[in-house]
Amino acid sequence: MLEPLIRANIPRLQPLYHRAPSPLRNFLTGARGWFLARLRYAPETLAMLETFRSHESWSAGDIAAYQLSHLQEIVEHARATVPFCADYPRGPIRSLEDLRRFPILERETVRQGIDHLLSRKIPPNSRIRAGTTGTTGANLKVAYTEALARANWAILLRQWQWAGVAPLEKRITLFGAQIIPPARTAPPFWTRNAPERQILMSIFHLSKGAAPAYLGFLQSHRGIVLEGFPSVLAILADFILERGEPVPMRVVFTSGEPLYPDTRAKIAAAFATRVFDSYGMTEYCGSIQECERGGMHLIPEFGFLEILNNRDEPAAPGEEGHFVWTGFLNRAMPLIRYRIGDRGAWQADSPCPCGRAFPLVMPTITRESDTLRCPDGRIFSPRALNQLLKQSSSLRFCQFVHDRPERIIVRAVPGAGTPVEETAAIRDRLQALLGPAMHVVSEIATAPLARPGGKIPLIVDQVQG
Ligand SMILES: [Zn+2]
């Protein structure tokens, strides 16, 4: 399978890619897109989409039965093939009480290494590897399968259908791929992925100076689907609202970050359309998606969710607690009772007006961050800088402190491994991204900078704020 090979080689290919002229870059993006498109729009994926659509008429009882049988299946798979789970309790799972006999898997345990969490049944060359960072730089590595990638895409396509969007409709995407050389100051700040009818826009080139180009391009593609990180779309929305002329898009999909109510309102106003949010994670153990009536629905095919209070007991509806996920889809690295570090609450039982019985759950917005505003007008969202942390795994926290107009400190709190080297590597990547106009230094700290309430922002702006 070439997709994992390409992914594994992206760090090495990146400089080559950045030196390529724009048509060649389009071609390379398209080549990668062709593999993804093949996976995402395979007949199996579209058949799965049809099956998943038929689940929308399920009753609460149907959902419970489906979830119980998949819990049973994944727990057995984990116990039989994952060394870490070998001595998990035996016997069938007939109820939530049975599941509660299993230990809770903490994020820190996963962060310290995943070899003992991998299923021996899935051969290494069938595993797709990825890294994730949360938003505070505490990195972890994950592995998953192509079958999961397909199911994940089918579930995403189902939410598109909730928004009236068909598979392969044209879209503009603002996620984390570095698709344009960092030093570029003139358009294009975008590249085309023809097989998926997708335009990828860079999230690393947003600035007051580049705003007219970005807005002009969006304006010339108005009416199509827009998707991206909330903090990135918010930067574009600010430009649009300052100019005072909305850029109407068909619909906006957000994910990858919490969507604050004021950010949602701003994005909806700037693009004159509805926003459909979703909550997911690179560990691929669960999903929550917004429907056309604004309900945040637990996706029953993806995983089982427990919300536990501080005594590790099930939280009552409306009571905030820790998300503890058991994913159904990832057979390469099954996570059983995984406490991911996010919080939320079951919504008290009013059924959603959309008619689906998928339970309603509200993720709590616990992360917050400033944006990085450089003196030359460039603006970086927390998600843009977060991308720089993906290759490091030795740090418990990593923050970016903007302490003087032209200076950033990469401030790392070490864990095991080689934190000094990794911090230096992050500093070098940030310096390469920001160029000579900014001076990037690094320092090792013993604790992260926290705000009242314990929030740990990724970017700390000490210049404007
Ligand atoms: Zn609904």
The description of the largest β-sheet is: 8 strands, mixed
Binned strand content: 15-25%
CATH architecture of the largest domain: 3-Layer(aba) Sandwich
Q: Looking at CATH, which topology of the largest domain would you report?
A: Rossmann fold
Structural class category = alpha/beta
The spatial strand order of the largest sheet comes to 5-6-4-7-8-9-10-11
Count of distinct structural domains: 2
Report Rg: 22 Å
Task: Give the ligands present.
Answer: zinc ion
Task: Please tell me about this protein's structure.
With 465 residues, the chain is an alpha/beta fold. It folds into two domains: 43-363, Rossmann fold; 372-461, GMP Synthetase, Chain A, domain 3 (2-Layer Sandwich), CATH 3.30.300. The protein has twelve helices and 21 strands. It has an eight-stranded mixed sheet with strand order 5-6-4-7-8-9-10-11. Strands 1, 12, 13, 14 and 15 form a five-stranded mixed sheet that branches. Strands 20-19-18-21 form a four-stranded mixed sheet, with helices on one face. α1 runs antiparallel to α2 (22-40), α3 (43-54) packs across α7 (146-162) and α9 packs across α10. The longest helix is centred in the first third of the chain and has 22 residues, at 60-81. It is globular, with a radius of gyration of 22 Å. The model has no long low-confidence stretch (mean pLDDT 89). The structure holds zinc ion. Zinc ion binds at residues 291, 293, 295, 297, 352, 354, 356.
